[in-house]
Amino acid sequence: MKNRGIEAAETFACKILLASREINECADRLLREHAVTPSQSLFIYYLRKGELYPSQIAKKMGIDASNLSRMIRLLEQKGVIERRVDDSNRSRVEILLTKKGRGFAPKLDTHADVIQDKIMEVLTADEQATLSRALAKIEAALSQVG
Predict the structure, then answer these.
(1) From the CB of residue 39, how many other CB atoms can be counted at a distance below 10 Å?
(2) Is residue 13 part of a domain?
(3) Domain residues for 126?
(4) Is the dihedral of CA 57, 47, 75, 114 positive or negative?
């Protein structure tokens, strides 16, 4: 990890933001060979986990409709996803992995494993548990803001 001054950052919000950027940049480097971004990889991950509806995936990813539409268009152009009208609700669209996408998607898992392993090798089990609790508290606190 490049030292971007996480220790020198004066607020926890800045420290977390800098750490998040490091994780995203690492994921970007690892995914470059597959020509997908970390966000596209996360979208594909949710499809593999059984999510079908763009609005639900966007909510989980924390992205807006315009970014989601652009991502869907790009992944369609790559041939890894397709849109289909929901048979149970004709006004809703489902997103599915194509045959190419189902073959391509598992290749993206490696980057997440590398990042996870690298983080876990520097944290003890107690530190991992403490970090998980702290992040959950931060998420809960921030969900109450504005």
Answers:
(1) 18
(2) no
(3) 36-143
(4) positive
Q: Indicate the pTM of the whole model.
A: 0.79
pLDDT given for residue 1 in this prediction = 45
Ramachandran class of 79: left when φ > 0, alpha when ψ lies in -120 to 50, beta otherwise: left
The verdict on residue 24 lying in a domain is: no
CA dist., res. 16 & res. 78, Å (int)? 33
Q: How many domains does the chain have?
A: 1
H or E, element range at 82:
strand 81-85
Cα dist. 88→25, 33, 56, 84, 93 in Å? Answer: 40, 38, 17, 12, 10
List C-alpha distances in Å: 29 to 2, 23, 25, 86, 116. Answer: 13, 10, 6, 36, 15
74: domain CATH number? 1.10.10.10
- pLDDT tens track for 52-111: 889 899 989 989 888 899 999 999 999 999 999 888 888 889 999 999 999 989 889 888
Give CA–CA dist 46/108, Å, rounded. 12
Q: Which residue has the tokens 């763009």?
A: 54
